[in-house]
Specification:
The chain has two domains: about 160 residues, Ribosomal Protein S5, domain 2 (2-Layer Sandwich); about 130 residues, GHMP kinase, C-terminal domain (Alpha-Beta Plaits). The protein has ten helices and eleven strands. Strands 1, 2, 3, 4, 5, 6 and 11 form a seven-stranded mixed β-sheet that branches. The protein has about 300 residues and is an alpha+beta fold. The two termini are about 15 Å apart. The longest helix is centred in the middle third of the chain and has 20 residues. The protein binds adenosine-5'-diphosphate. The site of adenosine-5'-diphosphate has 19 residues, from α1, α2 and α3. Pathway: Amino-acid biosynthesis; L-threonine biosynthesis; L-threonine from L-aspartate: step 4/5. GO terms for molecular function: homoserine kinase activity. Its EC number is 2.7.1.39. Catalyzes the ATP-dependent phosphorylation of L-homoserine to L-homoserine phosphate.
Length: about 300
């Protein structure tokens, strides 16, 4: 195989009580990428459409992730990477993660799959380091593996893949405003009261349990973030109003996607998701802020070959 075309999915990280450790993969939003072998022993970004992003290999997350994979494999095969970018950078739904994960997935395939998908996470994380200065895994792990993934530990890296209840749907609203990841990190308090910590780990444990038992009501009760959301939500226009609409329309839970500005409503079934979608759209259309909105199933496999 000389060439491969793939779908690189968007992801929702920082899932409420799972701040910095829990993420899931979306199905209907993502980039397309074409990766082909070249005879130049060089990794090149040869085309980017959809967004204005760096073409230099060492400044593009896809290039950086592939270079670190090739270095690990001691491999001098060259590759040309084309990115059709449909996930806007800085949206909070893993734009950089999609490129990093998609690129290492494709290169691994073209090399005859020397590594398992889980082993690719560490190389995709190099792209995340370039994008945000922090090699986090809660977007790249779900992008590569699909479904819900928990980062139990970074040293050593341990990713726990969790089950995906089949009726879950995500409605994601992206207000087209800019929030710098650095700024949304800077306002987080560094100390947490014991009371809040107890509530948070109780909720996270319950949410994980609910994924296994498909207990949607328990998912709804536990999808809460008492630590980061109260501080960060002030950066997102009409956060409280959207949360109210989401609950009125019967969503299980509502929160900030990644470091924002996107927000998500987790829903049981297509009908509730359609109602939430309609109501969010109606509400935000009356405001002066442009937005994108998506409804998606949870993608169970991650990056896909097209
Ligand atoms: P997101 O959370 O949506 O990934 P970030 O703001 O964390 O958004 O990352 C986007 C940053 O990464 C931008 O500065 C962008 O220029 C840089 N970047 C480099 N290569 C890519 C790429 N292939 N896709 C997306 N962003 C990239």
């Amino acid at each position: 195989m000389k060439e491969i075309k793939i779908f690189a999915p968007a992801t929702v990280a920082n899932l409420s009580c799972g701040f910095d450790v829990l993420g899931c993969c979306l199905d209907s939003v993502g980039d397309e990428m074409t990766i082909r072998k070249n005879d130049l022993k060089k990794v090149r970004i040869t085309k980017i459409s959809g967004q204005d992003l760096p073409m230099e290999t060492d400044k593009n997350v896809a290039g950086v992730a592939v270079l670190s994979l090739l270095d690990h494999l001691n491999e001098n095969q060259g590759f040309d990477i084309e990115i059709d970018k449909r996930i806007k950078p800085g949206s909070g739904i893993g734009s950089s993660a999609a490129s990093s994960a998609g690129a290492v997935f494709a290169v691994n395939k073209l090399l005859g799959e020397p590594l398992k998908h889980k082993e690719l996470v560490q190389f995709a994380m190099k792209g995340e380091f370039l994008a945000s200065g922090n090699a986090h895994a809660d977007n790249v792990a779900p992008a590569l593996l699909g479904g819900f993934n928990l980062v139990r530990s970074y040293e050593p890296l341990e990713i726990v893949s969790l089950p995906t209840p089949h009726e879950l749907r995500m409605v994601v609203l992206h207000p087209l405003i800019e929030i710098k990841t650095r700024d949304s990190r800077a306002i987080i308090k560094q100390n947490v009261s014991l009371k809040k910590a107890i509530n948070q780990w109780g909720n996270l444990a319950a949410f994980v349990s609910a994924l296994y038992t498909e207990d949607y009501a328990l998912m709804g009760r536990s999808l809460k973030d008492e630590i980061v959301e109260p501080v960060r939500s002030i950066l997102i226009p009409f956060f409280e109003e959207l949360e109210k609409i989401s609950s009125e329309q019967g969503a299980l839970g509502f929160g900030i996607s990644g470091s924002g500005p996107s927000v998500f409503a987790m829903c049981k079934g297509d009908e509730v998701a359609a109602e939430v979608y309609k109501s969010f759209k109606k509400f935000y259309s009356s405001k002066e802020i442009e937005f994108d909105i998506h409804v998606s199933e949870i993608n169970k496999t991650g990056v896909k070959i097209l």
